[in-house]
Amino acid sequence: MKRLQDISLYLFALLTLAAFNGAALVGLICTRQLGRRFGLYGLIDNDTVGWIFSAILVIYAIALGLIAVATWRNASAAANVASQEASQIPVLYRGLLGYPQPLQNEIKGVLVRYLKSIIEDAWPAQRRGEVTEEGIKDLLELGHRIITFEPATVGQCVVYGEVMRSFNTLTAFRRRRIEAASYAVPKSLWCVVLSGAALSIFASYVFNIPSLLVHSLMTVLLASMIALLVFFIAATDNPYQGANSIEPTAYRIALHDVLEFQ
């Protein structure tokens, strides 16, 4: 799956369609030959098969739809938490304007270094599927410098409170982003998806359709629809991994914003 995540979405979609349709057509041809040889198709009532086939498809469609919605929600949540963490950095940076010099510039330098470490180190590691603690030293140093500052005036007390609130929010968003890096469809659920696909496609073989061309066309339509949904689940699974993962655009914007204040 990791190798598939490293190719483009268009090629991934074409490969998924080709794999499902190829396997479906090979299975159809083999099943029809066996059915004709043993006279099984003469025992089939298409009306009865249709009812059973419809029940199988409805159950599988509901399960597949719920899984697809869950993966999309995970991907959206992962993108949202990254955006929230990135947007909190300029807020913290502006709050530091109330700190005295040279402490203000020192803390700003640590914050910029932390932001660059996310873009240059943490994000590439996430794409490789690695849970990294890159930037944690900078974050700890940032917290230490912020907390150990002793306000001397009422105004500095207000600034100190706002900066602490922003720092705690940033830390919470960072923790949520690291947790989101592990969002993935469990292997047991992938077994359900693929087994259900095989069962649904195999059920289409049971219909007694004299024309191989018509039977193949119906099977391809069914296999293509299932393949597209499976592709969608695979493409939105592991939102921080692979070539098609979430980009650190929000962090680049945040870096541009903070550098504009310098």
Walk me through this protein's architecture:
α2 (9-38) crosses α7. The protein has helices spanning 2-5, 9-38, 46-95, 103-127, 136-147, 154-180, 187-205, 212-236, 249-261. The longest helix has 50 residues, at 46-95. The model has no long low-confidence stretch (mean pLDDT 87). Helix content is 78%, strand content 0%. By secondary structure, the protein is an all-alpha fold. The protein is built from nine helices and no strands.
Summed up, the helix count is 9
Q: What gyration radius follows from the Cα positions, in whole Å?
A: 27 Å
- Contiguous uncertain segments of 5+ residues: none
Strand-residue proportion = under 5%
The residue-averaged pLDDT reads 87
Q: What characterizes the major β-sheet? A: none
Order of helices and strands: HHHHHHHHH
Instruction: Name the helicity range.
Output: over 70%
How many angstroms separate the termini? 44 Å
List how many beta strands DSSP finds. Answer: 0
Q: Which term fits the overall shape?
A: rod-shaped
SSE class: mainly alpha
What are the SSEs and their pairings?
Elements: H1 2-5, H2 9-38, H3 46-95, H4 103-127, H5 136-147, H6 154-180, H7 187-205, H8 212-236, H9 249-261
Helix pairs in contact: 2-7, 2-8, 3-6, 3-7, 3-8, 3-9, 4-5, 4-9, 5-6, 7-8
